[in-house]
Amino acid sequence: MYIRIGLALSFALSIFLTLGQTVRGKVETTEHEALIGATVLENGTRNGTVTDVSGMFELKLSQREALLIISYSGFISDTVKADLSKEQHYQLQENTEELDEVVVQASSTFLDDRESKHVEVITEAELTKAACCNLSESFETNASVDVSFTDAVSGAKTIRMLGLDGRYVQINRENIPNVRGLAGRYGLTYVPGTWVQSIDVGKGAGTVVNGFESMTGQINVELKKPENSEKIYLNTYANSMGRLEINANHARNINDQWSTALLLHSNYFNSEVDQNNDGFMDIPKGRQINVMNRYKYHGKNMESQIGFTVMRDEKAGGQLGFDFGDDFRTSAQYGFKNNTTRAEVFGKTGLLFPHKPYKGWGFIYSASYLDIAGGFGRDNYQGTEKTLYGNVIFQNIIGNSFHSYRTGVSMLYDEFDEVYADSAFSRQEVVPGLYYEYTFSPGEKFTLLAGARTDFHNLYGTYFTPRLHSRFQFTENTTLRAAIGRGFRTPNTIVENSNILVSSRQLIIEENPEPEVSWNMGGSLVTAIIISDKKLNLIADYFYTTFENQLIYDMDQNASQLRVYNLRGKSYAHSFQLEGNYQFSDRFSAKAAYKLYDVQATINGELQEVPFNARDRFFVNGSYATKFDKWEADATLQWFGSKRLPDTSNKPAEFQRGSASPDFFLLNAQVSRGFRWGNIYVGSENLLGFTQDDPIIDSENPFSDNFDASLVWAPVAGRMVYAGFRYKIKR
Predict the structure, then answer these.
(1) Phi/psi zone of residue 167: left (φ > 0), alpha (ψ -120 to 50 degrees), beta?
(2) CB-CB contact of 55 with 305 (8 Å)
């Protein structure tokens, strides 16, 4: 009897000791590089964890002689026996045949199959397929984002996603709000392309952790980091129209814990290009200097970084002969000027728990100052913006790694002061908020992301923003995503309509603008079909956006006016996109996409198509590379269908325009030659030379009542050829 009791106690004690023991280890590549976020799962259970920023993990076991399943996207999963005697290093081998993710474009862009949100990642390899002088030119080989000029004088560019203007897209830099406010129209040109490491393009409402302003999409730009950038990176660029550009990046380790990077950008353009002979420069003169210095600290229990940016950008355009030093208010010529100064300090700090890699605190902050001085014709514009942003984030799990959450508080402070012509506008916005986001991920087949935030606006009251994302993986090659979410933003009436200011139209703000509020819902289906032993990757997505309130910019009521008022009726956008890519051979791949937009708003009392938006668009891209990427060639062809144009019937007959634009094609191409030290490249934009005929109404009399340079639906400048080189010294 005593023997049986002793055996029972011994057995129970062994179980107790086993359950109380923990396995610790590190997951890395075969080249000893840490794999961050690798999944470690106890076989046959729901007990699991993920690796931290050092590739380390810690997992309490629930059974004796446990087996660990270790996996990471793009690597071959491995099953190993848990060794409790000491810390183990587990190496995963890269999967060179196929990734665990479904690739919906060429390898330089991908959609991670495990991500619950519809987020497409554009890598640096994709960005080098075009000149990519700044962020506004980073989407030329991407089908999801459309870029176009806003008018025929200022050179400003805008993007469109899901058929709607880029002001409804939240554009962040490393999860810090960036292209917004008074920088909304020109901000895309303030981010040099050579600074960009990757771009995350998310369709639909984004995560509540990053704020409330994502209404149709979220673009997050990751810049080059001190710890993984080249020691020296040099890039020069010149084009046939006279633009010159120099970029220089430098990164180094200060010691074992600190690293730093210095990023420099400068461009200069002083040519007067007038290919349509209307007496106006097709592209404004410009010069910019842009500097960023950032530092990164990596410790055992804390990671932190801080950065500083300073930028000065000057533009001068209008009639031929107008220059940087001229005063547009007294010049006999019609002039346009925009001189912008921007300074910012930003940073992140994270508190780590090495033995609990799923747990952590984070603090993101930014303080920026923006000053714009300029004007159009005889009307001056002066604007300043002071912004403070802070976001405290806490993340943890509930029981096990299948249930995780992020919660926190944020603060956004904006101070605007604007003067346009003889009118002054100013406001202060203080928006504290709190949020909670829960993730349920029981395995590779299903993920649910549910979040909500409440923001307390000092001017407009309380706003509740719920968002829900889900992912269902039916088979290895087929994944369905669905999402719904609410968003809101406060408009900046003058800056967001800077194209209208390049005209004789009278700006009439009929009522106080209210915040724009929308709901976005939709999803995507990703699948792959095997053709000749190769995958044809297909993705179809549909999103619907409907507005509770929207600021309407009415150009139809009177061709001599722009009337601004809050929505008085319906406003919505249907967006459908079908995209596919196929690797024809080891050297050649192609991708194509068709987009259908149905964008309607109640304008002048009538539900009608929003102007300047093509209902149908087609995109095709082809890429070819020789062995070892010695030679690379890339070409992109886009077709834009007809666009509705604002009503000009009350103008004199000679100054009237049609109700719709014709369709047209745009072709861009580039060829590069690789060397051990980098590459040289030659390319062309608008290779077919298509331009809009007579883009400026009454260009001979720019101070008349009929002058209008805002009705732009296609490129104003023709074919442009460019060349440059990239030189790299790796660390």
Answers:
(1) alpha
(2) no
